[in-house]
Amino acid sequence: MKQIEKIISIILRPIRENLIFFIFLYLLGILTMMIEVYTLNFKIQRFNFFSWIFDLYLLCLPLTFLPPKIKAICKIISATILYFLSIVNSFCVDKFYAKIGTEILNVVLETNPNESSEFIDKYIHWDVLTSGVGLILILLILHILFTFSLNHLKQSLSFLWYRIQAKTRTLVESIMIFLILTSIILCAQSRIGIIQLLMANNAEEVDTLTSNFSENTPFNNLLFSIKMRQLANRGLKDLTDTQDKIVIDSCSHTSNHIVLIIGESYIKGHSQLYGYSKETTPRQIKRQQRNEHGCLVAFDDVVSPSNLTSIVFKNTFSLHSIEDQSNWSNYPLFPVLFRQSGYNVTFLTNQFVQSLSTDIFNVSGGLFLNERRLSTLQFTHRNTKTHQFDIDLLSDYDSLKKFNSAHQLTIFHLAGQHIDFYKRSPKTMKKFTASDYSERKELNISSRQLVADYDNATLYNDYVVDSILKCYEHEDAVIIYMPDHGEECYDELQRMGRLPVGNYTPEVLRQEYRIPFWIWCSDSYIKKHQQIFKQIVNARNRPFMTDDLPHLMLYLAGIYCKDYQETRCLISNNFNENRKRLISGEVDYDSIINYNQIKKDLHTK
Known about the structure:
Elements: H1 2-16, H2 19-40, H3 47-63, H4 68-96, H5 102-109, H6 113-123, H7 132-149, H8 151-158, H9 166-198, H10 203-211, H11 218-244, E1 250-251, E2 257-263, H12 282-287, E3 295-298, E4 301-303, H13 309-317, H14 334-340, E5 344-349, H15 363-370, H16 372-378, E6 381-382, H17 393-400, E7 408-413, H18 445-470, E8 477-483, E9 488-489, E10 496-497, H19 506-513, E11 518-521, H20 523-528, H21 530-538, E12 543-545, H22 549-557, E13 559-560, E14 582-583, E15 587-588, H23 589-604
Parallel strand pairs: 2-7, 2-8, 4-12, 5-6, 5-7
Antiparallel strand pairs: 1-13, 3-11, 8-11, 9-10, 14-15
Helix pairs in contact: 2-3, 2-4, 2-7, 3-9, 4-7, 5-11, 9-10, 13-15
């Protein structure tokens, strides 16, 4: 029995000898999380209650063996860093609705003294004390008082369990041992992930690792941001050097106006265009029939290379193929090729404008679009702010019409069906309610409403893309539509959202990687480019992955360079239909899907 008590005493020693330090920093972590939950409407991350126990125990462990003076200095430094990060994070949450992340770090590092002075005058006032920052400052003051002024109370707390009855002390010790062991079990794998992340060699690896990471504490976010900035700067330099070396072999300007519409989180199974029972795409259905306004050709077998926006964007803008061993930054970006070929390139985005971002995990997807030099190399014109609803991008388009030229590439990047689905469509255009899904007995009322919200967002997306098409009905224009990736919305997996990279079951691949894809040609374009239109129609059943999109874009423009490959152009007669579609460059999409289908067929027989 005495041996067990000795082991327990040894395990609890780091906490017992640093009790005030441990308690207040734990309260700091809880308070920081609750400020984010309250302000940003985040869900409580219960995992963090244990992760902070784990981290603080690891922090207190070496302190136990230090001399008193050195221990005191280390505690002051550690507490100062953590309080500072929490204050900065809470300030950013209150003023910008953004946690500490890569974009925040970029702004801080790139701000000059004059801008700093203007920032202080504009944002730092006494009213900041009424926000979460004030609560953290109160906690800091209490921490200081307990540490330096109330030594007798600190000593009382430090030896509390020696002054209470033995049974009560044993209960307290047992609870603490349970919490420590539970935190170790829950957090050990996560901490290995942090080590892997800090050792990552490229931004894609960081994207993949952070997609599996659930702890968004200010300290972790800062670590990720520093690492991401380091890798991003290296990647951006390589990417810029590559663009500076681009050589265009020839350009025939085959298509005068090419439009690319990039959607967001679009589930193919929720599209009426592909057989969904609800009327979510009535306008696209109507445009399938050839008339004086053109024709829409839907493609049946298109997949995304990833379910992460950042990886999708890098591979759909670069001529890099996701299975290539070399880095994507060593390849040309197709907008740069268009600009150098004499096209006016306009980028209208409702996500990646050049401003603060609240998502550190997707920043690499927008960074190469927003970095000033690369943005100038790619785009002639672009919008400067996001909108509540996608339809307002058309007002940006109208304001930039005066810059139109004979040859144009226009890229619309929508918010589409990005979570939160309810916010993606105005109240006046909501058609579906939970009652429309009464046949889904396996879902509760709130889940049915989420499905309704998603279908309303899809119906609104149909209205938005149709409004864009109307702008080009009387022009010589060809329009390509594709979302970045799919999503799960209580379909096969009975859940919402996307699973981390590496979950490649047939169900996940169908919902999160299989996407809608169509090409619309105006009537004028069809008459002028009959051969291309015929190629588009003939290609509608071909297997395709959107990392090959740039080769289709170049073919439509008649742009040729050394990195262009006709075998990767979807509508070319030389298209390679046998290419392996490697999801995230790792697994063969068709092998997994077809194997599952073969098993079903055998079972049916």
